[in-house]
Design goal:
alpha/beta
Length: about 375
């Protein structure tokens, strides 16, 4: 927790759980990515945290932006960033949304099938397209391995159709999985990308760009490698597979850009047991899966939690949210260690919550307000 967040929480009026994001941390993270891969363009993944203050900071710093919708594109343009700094990176787009993005000046679009190419060709003539390919995502907490992308062998057909349809077949993209712990995870995907570049060149079509996606982690309960380690491994893989003819490259950090910049303050609502003989406590917070902590689904993301009783004896407990929904349980398969002395009314601090919390928070479920957020 930064001193700025600590000072803010000390003086805020208690009106329920809240997220506090420190812009100084995000500024430092952007500079770290820029140093780690100096010849690569940073396209911040807006979906991770689209707060206007975050987007304004990154726009001023020189970042470009990966957008998943027209709404996100309009948010980025509101910062004063120009449309040539935007990638419409969602492979699943309504034709009218492609047309609207094109009208707004966006010229870079993701595809992963021929039908998407055909939509873009109809309403965004001359646009640049890159084809997303599948990779296994081994080593990631969220593999992202099925919904987006095509098999690498299919990509040349998709890109050749783009070329023949009057679009610019621009490159290849992939995503190695969110919260990727393996610094070498990009190697296999870059090998596939290089093979596609060679195949397209043999067809007389020369690609220019590789979008290496996100996957850069933040520290939760486990310490992860630093950005510099990822940068070094990625550069070595690029050199190994592309030799001296390196393509243009893009990265799309989201979690790695904002995750460690935010912290949620929550309150213990209830502590109970399910029977007199039960040794396992249930600790209920005033925040759960529906109000910002959706990434605890399948216990994929295990957030660090601080309490005012840290240092006392601990025991495992089930951690759950406040709603009348039985899936609103955060950690049960692997119970969470919390102090035995923890009491109803105690405040807890949930760390590394700057990414994918406010954007996952429901609007009015069970009558609870969406997660409040403050950017300082």
């Amino acid at each position: 927790m930064t001193q700025r967040i600590r000072d803010f929480l000390r003086t805020r009026r208690d009106d329920g759980p809240c997220l506090v994001v420190d812009l100084d941390v995000i500024r430092q993270n952007y500079e770290t990515f820029a140093r780690a891969l100096p010849d690569t363009n940073v396209y911040y993944a807006v979906k991770a945290n689209p707060a206007p203050e975050v987007l304004n900071l990154l726009a001023r710093a020189g970042s470009s932006f990966d957008c998943a919708s027209v709404g996100e594109i309009e948010m980025v343009l509101a910062t004063g960033a120009t449309a040539n700094r935007i990638s419409y990176g969602n492979t699943i787009k309504k034709e009218r949304d492609i047309e609207r993005a094109y009208q707004l000046g966006v010229r870079l679009f993701a595809v992963d099938c021929e039908a998407e190419v055909e939509k873009i060709a109809r309403v965004a003539p001359g646009a640049k397209v890159f084809c997303r390919i599948l990779c296994d995502g081994a080593g990631a907490d969220w593999p992202l391995s099925r919904k987006f992308g095509c098999e690498p062998a299919m990509a040349p057909k998709v890109l050749e159709l783009a070329h023949r349809s009057g679009l610019r077949a621009y490159g290849v993209s992939f995503h190695v999985g969110s919260q990727q712990s393996n610094v070498d995870a990009w190697d296999g995907a870059l090998a596939s990308a290089a093979a596609i570049f060679r195949e397209m060149a043999a067809r007389g079509i020369h690609l220019s760009m590789v979008n290496m996606g996100g996957g850069f982690p933040t520290d939760y309960l486990k310490k992860m490698p630093g950005v510099a380690s990822y940068g070094e491994a990625i550069f070595q893989a690029l050199s190994r597979h592309f030799g001296n003819r390196l393509p243009e490259t893009i990265i799309e950090p989201g979690r790695g850009m904002v995750g460690n910049a935010g912290m949620i303050e929550a309150e213990v609502v209830l502590i109970s047991k399910k029977s007199d003989e039960d040794t396992l406590r249930w600790v209920y917070l005033d925040i759960g899966k529906f109000h910002g902590l959706a990434e605890t689904m399948d216990e994929a993301i295990r957030y660090p939690i601080r309490t005012p009783k840290d240092g006392d004896d601990t025991a495992p407990c089930v951690l759950a949210g406040p709603t009348c929904d039985s899936v609103d349980v955060l950690y049960e398969k692997v119970p969470y260690e919390l102090p035995v002395s923890l009491s109803i009314g105690d405040k807890v601090l949930i760390e590394a919550c700057g990414a994918y919390t406010t954007t996952y928070s429901s609007v009015g479920f069970n009558g609870f307000a969406p997660l409040a957020a403050y950017v300082i």
